[in-house]
């Protein structure tokens, strides 16, 4: 640090650290020295930050996503969703896919969220943000590439209200007709197996993925054992006479899996069926779970604590508020029965 130099009625001082420098003019030499001492500390901190930034090579978001999938994502139970998101990442995230993770800020994430909400539902954006947040947590906590997670600082959209739609008898008939499947017959084509699974789901309240994943060695006389379910636990699904009759239509003595479908082939067949019937966007396969649970209460008269065992719900509130949807007339009939 140079000494103050008198210039007319004032003093001028210059401070330098490495390649950084600054100057100031003050009324007295003492004021110059005080300023210089403070400014020197600031220049040292500024230089340190520059070095830190220079030591961070660009790391594209896409590269991080690919590494996350290989190291973490493909080992998760929901790997199919993560893989699908990765394959369509450029379409979902635009130019930011090639942006360095060091340059992605909460402000940029907020803009992406708002733009994305104009294209898809809040539920879709929330699920994507949860995935991206996990990826950045991996970069922060496992790879030590970043100090802060920009997705953790941005509010996620509110969850949409749970669906409460029941499938009508007419809609069931349309789906069976579009699949060329007649109730009570043995399915043979991929589309017919989807139609059979549709009926089976409405008798058991099993999820689509649970039906697809059933192996024949886990089928017993009056129940199906599911080694792992959505909440991570195993579950035994009791079979009604109607469900057992449907199960007996499918030969399962000479095969490993109950139905010859994986997640993707089942999804494509189901979407083609809905398109034929004009029900695309109106009916979801998961609506069969609403139908089954409503029938368990209205027709089978199952109490809620038993119903939770059947459906695999840990939280009875979720079961009551999301899946069981009686209307006022239904409740009145129960009261007067």
UniProtKB/TrEMBL annotation:
Drop me one GO molecular function for this one: DNA binding
Record's keyword terms, sorted = DNA integration, DNA recombination, DNA-binding
Query: Which segment of the chain is annotated as a signal peptide?
Result: none
Which SUPFAM superfamilies does the UniProt record give?
A: DNA breaking-rejoining enzymes
Which GO BP terms, alphabetically?
A: DNA integration; DNA recombination
Q: Give start and end of each Tyr recombinase domain.
A: 162-336
Q: Which Pfam families match?
A: Phage_integrase
The question of whether Oxidoreductase is a record keyword is answered with: no
Query: Quick check: keyword Aminoacyl-tRNA synthetase in the entry?
Result: no
Q: What name does UniProt use for this protein?
A: Integrase
Species name: Acinetobacter populi
